[in-house]
């Protein structure tokens, strides 16, 4: 077989294999991730849908436009973990940087979430909104974070009508603005007693 024809067959075969791989792309590819019927119960880090039914998906420009309305900003990013090789004789003092004014409730977007913690999350949002279900709320964490999607979904299910999901998260904010060190919400930081511990 001539070398030129052999190279052409290799190129055609490679192209067909690439098409086959695209057709067999996993459901969690960045191209098209469907919304789950309920909360996402897998790992929190991964490709997310482009939509959140009942909520408004915002980019940084839309978030900037929303800020004069003083939305409740809910950061559900996980707290930094102490490295295994961190020196035992040094204090572990991580600083969580976020959108200024955000209320940080680490891991509040987990699913499943202990019912006591879920109840606390909903009570904190109710308190922080003054019971106004039409108050703008923005949920976020880091890019490709199901936790912020779940947090928004929980609020939509509770009848909040101005839920906004900011999928670009802290890094998306930081691309244009300064971040600030925020502390964990004091009510969230207290470990509530679960029903099984009473």
Uncertain segments: 6-29
| Number of separate strands | 7
Shape: globular
The largest sheet has its strands arranged as 1-6-5-2-4
Helix- and strand-based class? alpha/beta
Biggest beta sheet attributes: 5 strands, parallel
Distance between the ends: 80 Å
Structure write-up:
The structure is a single chain. This protein is α/β, with parallel strands linked by helices and 198 residues long. The chain is built from six helices and seven strands; from the N terminus they run αβαβββαβαβαβα. It has helices spanning 3-23, 60-66, 115-128, 146-157, 169-174, 186-189; strands at 56-57, 72-75, 97-98, 103-104, 137-140, 163-165, 180-181. The chain has a five-stranded parallel β-sheet with strand order 1-6-5-2-4, with helices on one face. A two-stranded antiparallel ribbon has the order 3-7. Strand 5, helix 4 (146-157) and strand 6 form a beta-alpha-beta unit. The N and C termini lie far apart (80 Å). Mean pLDDT is 84; it is low at 6-29.
């Amino acid at each position: 077989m001539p070398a030129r024809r052999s190279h052409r067959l290799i190129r055609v075969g490679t192209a067909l294999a690439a098409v086959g791989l695209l057709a067999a792309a996993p459901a969690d590819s960045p191209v098209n991730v469907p919304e789950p019927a309920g909360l996402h119960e897998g790992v929190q880090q991964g490709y997310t849908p482009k939509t959140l039914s009942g909520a408004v998906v915002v980019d940084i420009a839309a978030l900037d436009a929303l800020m004069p309305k003083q939305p409740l900003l809910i950061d559900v990013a996980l707290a930094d973990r102490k490295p295994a090789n961190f020196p035992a004789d040094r204090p572990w003092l991580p600083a969580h940087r976020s959108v200024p004014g955000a209320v940080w409730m680490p891991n509040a977007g987990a699913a499943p979430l202990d019912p006591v913690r879920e109840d606390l999350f909903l009570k904190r949002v109710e308190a922080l909104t003054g019971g106004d279900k039409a108050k703008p709320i923005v949920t976020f964490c880091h890019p490709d974070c199901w936790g912020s999607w779940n947090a928004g979904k929980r609020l939509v299910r509770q009848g909040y009508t101005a839920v906004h999901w900011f999928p670009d998260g802290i890094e998306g904010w930081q691309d244009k603005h300064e971040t600030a060190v925020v502390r964990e919400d004091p009510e969230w930081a207290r470990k509530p007693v679960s029903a099984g511990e009473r």
